[in-house]
Amino acid sequence: MKLAELSYDEAAEILRHQPVALWPIGSTEAHGPHLPLDTDVIIAETSALRAVAPIEAALGKKVVLLPPLSFTITDFTGNFAGTVSIPRETALAYVREVACAASFQGFSAICLVNAHLEPAHRFMLRDAVKEARSKAGCPIGIADPADARFAQSLTPEFASGSCHAGSYETSLVLAADPGRVRTAAQRGLPRLDIDLVARIKGGAKTLADAGGATAYCGAPADASVAEGEASYRRLAEIVRTVVAELLGSGAP
Fold first, then answer.
1. What burial class does residue 183 get, using C-beta atoms within 10 Å of its C-beta: 0-12 exposed, 13-18 middle, 19+ buried?
2. How far apart are CA 81 and CA 56, in angstroms?
3. Cα 71–67–101 angle (5° rounding)?
4. Strand ranges for the chain from DSSP E
5. N or C: which terminal CB in the chain sees fewer CB atoms within 10 Å?
6. Around 238, how many Cα atoms within 13 Å sit in the side-chain half-sphere?
7. CA distance 75 to 173
8. Which residues span the domain enclosing 172?
9. How far apart are the C-alpha atoms of 79 and 39, rounded to whole Å?
10. Where does the pLDDT of residue 250 fall: very low under 50, low under 70, confident under 90, or very high at 90 and above?
11. pLDDT digit string, tens, across residues 58-111
12. pLDDT band at 8, cuts 50/70/90?
């Protein structure tokens, strides 16, 4: 159930039941020659949608999806056409204020469902949520697959860190909306292993600096719907886990 598609009286009726809010968090940035700029938005929104049934079944809570966040810090791919990055202070203030304002609508918890893995963005989310919690009307948290406790439970490519527009993300887009993948380009891309974490620690400021001259790394040609479906099952479980923790916390 998407909040933006409801009328105000429909929203009022649903909010009487103190539903959980899921906020998909993506970006608008280059993802190789084979994936769209809104790849992270697709993955975040689909992960949130796939989490609805597990949350409702296991926790007995209705779920509402907030409109996805599409612009954030994307400096690492900023030298590629179409990438739109905003300053950290702007992104932090926006996330903090939206989360805080939404918390007073009557939700029992708000979970940010993150699919954009750039470290500066992830750190910004943590700080924004920490600030929002100090005055929020409900618990707020983040379901981030790159968190240490979750990262090793996804695919080997994801765990390696060489996964920007690789098999992991390409498989997720194939499973969500196969028509969005430029398959002719995808199948011709060679495997490109780049330890992004190590390259960033070594001083790389952009994906191109790190060796990703065509805005990807990993093995996009190996992607499949089956891999994407398996990853979505795990991502949905991560969201359900975080929501359960928020509902059990007893305080904002």
1. middle
2. 40
3. 95
4. 20-25, 63-65, 109-114, 140-143
5. N
6. 27
7. 22
8. 3-249
9. 17
10. very low
11. 999 999 999 999 999 999 999 999 999 999 999 999 999 999 999 999 999 999
12. very high
Instruction: Check if the beta carbon of residue 26 is closer than 8 Å to that of residue 45.
Output: yes
Task: Compute the Cα dihedral for 200, 39, 36, 179 and give only its sign.
Answer: positive
What's the CATH code of the domain at 140? 3.40.50.10310
Between helices 167-176 and 225-249, what is the axis angle to 10°? Answer: 90
Count of domains observed in the chain: 1
Going by C-beta distance under 8 Å and a sequence separation of 6 or more, which residues neighbour residue 79? 206, 208
Alpha-carbon distance 108 to 243, whole Å?
10
The runs of H, that is alpha helices, within 60-209 are 88-103, 119-133, 148-151, 156-160, 167-176, 183-187, 196-201
For the chain, the average pLDDT equals 95
Give residue 249's pLDDT band: very low, low, confident or very high (50, 70, 90).
low
CB-based contacts of 145: which residues, under 8 Å, 6+ apart?
A: 114, 115, 117, 151, 154, 158, 235, 238
Q: How far apart are CA 173 and CA 175, in angstroms?
A: 5
CA distance 122 to 144: 8
Q: Closest by alpha carbon to 113, among 145, 138, 137?
A: 145
Q: What gap in Å lies between CA 48 and CA 19, rounded to an integer?
A: 14
Instruction: Encode pLDDT of 146-168 as tens digits.
Output: 999 999 999 999 999 899 999 99
Determine the Cα–Cα distance for residues 132 and 126; give it in Å rounded to an integer: 10
Q: How far apart are CA 145 and CA 60, in angstroms?
A: 24
